Amino acid sequence: MVQNKKIILSPLDWGLGHATRCIPLIRKLLENNNEVWVAGNETCRSLILEEFPNIPFLYLPGYRIQYANTARKLPWVIGKQLLKIWKAVRHEHRWLQKAIETYHFELVISDNRFGFYSKKIPSIFITHQLNIQAPNRFLHRLANLLNHYYLKKFKACWIPDYDDRRLSGNLSFYEGTVPVTFIGPLSRFQKPNQVISKEIDYLFILSGPEPQRTLLEKKILEEFSHDAKRKVLVRGLPGEKENWVVSGFEIYNHCSLTELQEFLSKTQWVISRAGYSSIMDYDALNCQAVLIPTPGQTEQVYLAQRFEAQKRFGIAFQTQPLRFQIEKYTINKLINNSL
Prior knowledge:
This protein is of the alpha/beta class and 339 residues long. The protein is 38% helix and 18% strand. Helix 9 (298-309) links the parallel strand 13 (289-292) and strand 14 (314-315).
């Protein structure tokens, strides 16, 4: 692990997972006597400063990706944003060069930000997606050509996964020239030492770009509002601290690490997107979960189906009745566990 360096680190703003998985990495870097600075948008700032109030933070705009409201439209909607993404990559690259000259950083760490590298000092790229999934062969080839083109601009690649028991499956498959190191999964949480009673039946955790975050929230509230079980909904909106009770839900805009750890430890079933950072958290805490892939996001579909095949997590599709799918899986799981 890196020691005694002045480091600038920046996570991608494509959902909350990139920022949250940087928290244990930052903690480890600080323990090794590094000076860590973080660059990102306001959402990233809220998450990072909540855990590290004294860490230097520099504002850097994100890619501001918007999703489609259906899976079929997603490739087209993302395609229309490629020019915006390319401009963001160019901007972050130029921004970084000025920051290095101003603050004299010695190492760059980029969590999936393609332009966040320098030719003057070592730059490390963090990703679990070296083999991007796509809906067809043409898009698969194109996506990975671009992915590997930018990857070659970094000195090394860190993969947040086990080398032998890969949570990421084929996503981390790579035959390129950039040195790759498996640094182990990055989770903010630690498994409790004692057994904790499961007081919460369902913990719904929302995340990811709009409008899909809001669409899933609306569907959950509609389908589970009359369910008598205890339900907690975390909306995934950092910076907004209010919480309230409505339609039988305990609703939180955002939870601190300590609060979310407590909820996860007390929950019978976690319901969330199939993001890789969430999967690393559930693996660390040995949670029971049902994963809902973001429509059209092939990485999440791949991960959810992979863990369902391993009988580790359940899967539910947003385009179908959620409550029926979730209750069917949880009941069958409980029956099988009792046999």
